[in-house]
């Protein structure tokens, strides 16, 4: 957005981990050999290449084990977008997706024919509307486990029970349209348990880039009996589902990152929730008129995410002011922000244009400290005060002097 660098001597505070995470040192260390001495093409026939192939398959096994799956059911992709498109390509029947889904799911669903499901003002799925929309011609439902913009965690088990009830109804009625449930769990993997059996889904997407792994690496898990149809054709890698030379370094890094996320998840989620709540408390105390989006209960919202809006202000101007002070925050999903578009997520939850225009998405990560939070609260408050005064708004009340 802005080309302004932080002021000289200013400590950088990065608070946009939902957009990108740094590669963890352990992950980078695991990847490096496959960028240098073990560079061979895994499809080649000689021993050196077979070593690369073996390590690639070991990474697949580690990824599968981390989500309670079998290795043969895991397809390694070039990121979550490809995985989502591959999942939604399974069915030619009608698709159901919530209005708050990631662009990669919405665009893929719209291209094949879909109905958009409404959500409540907190971003949680309207379950009554979902049940009404689950008609006999629906073949696939895709619902993210957690929203990366406002943090809403969807009740996947309840959703899965509704899907299973519809399957039983179809079986008893002699209807033969298969029904699949897919979830994109990319934004949830650092905070929530990711086990395919516990979630009761048929397909699941993950991204390495959201868990301190390499970018452009993801996976799609699909249950037994689901016939994935390739989007890419060529050499027949990934059992013919995803052709292209295998990204051995990426797969190894992904496996390392997911294992680290699994091991540290409970402790880190608790820490980030405490820091998020501290920041929210500081900002609401300074500006009681600010609006926090997403579920109110901690257990229903991603622990490291705070979506806060300052109605009447322009978030883009706040981002520039904060960037000059060394603080990096988002204004919504990185994809929408890059196009300067109003967030479809905020539109879906009924946010007014004023609320949407003044919204910041602040996301914490493993490197975030309490010192960062205290300093960020101070600098965000200063930026909001500066902008409010610039347009003749009372910073304490949010009212504009007419």
Tell me what portion of residues adopts beta-strand conformation. Answer: 5-15%
Give the neighbour order of strands across the main sheet. Answer: 2-8-7-6-5-3-4
- Please tell me the overall pLDDT: 92
Low-confidence stretches: 1-7, 333-339
Largest sheet report:
7 strands, mixed
- Pattern of helices and strands: EHHEHEHEHEHEHEEHEEHEHHHEH
Could you tell me how far the N terminus lies from the C terminus, measured between alpha carbons in angstroms?
31 Å
Tell me the overall shape.
globular
Question: Percent helix among the residues?
Answer: 25-40%
Based on DSSP secondary structure assignment, what is the total number of beta strands?
12
Question: Count of helices?
Answer: 13
For the CA atoms, what is the radius of gyration? 22 Å
Structural class: alpha/beta
Write up what this structure looks like.
The protein has 402 residues and is an alpha/beta fold. 40% of the residues lie in helices and 13% in strands. The chain has helices spanning 25-31, 47-66, 80-88, 103-112, 127-133, 156-173, 196-199, 248-286, 315-324, 334-338, 344-348, 353-357, 370-390; strands at 13-15, 74-77, 94-98, 114-117, 138-142, 180-184, 203-207, 218-222, 291-293, 305-309, 327-329, 359-363. The strands form 3 sheets. The chain has a 7-stranded mixed sheet, sandwiched between helices. Helix 3 (80-88) packs parallel to helix 4 and helix 9 packs across helix 13 (370-390). The two termini are 31 Å apart.
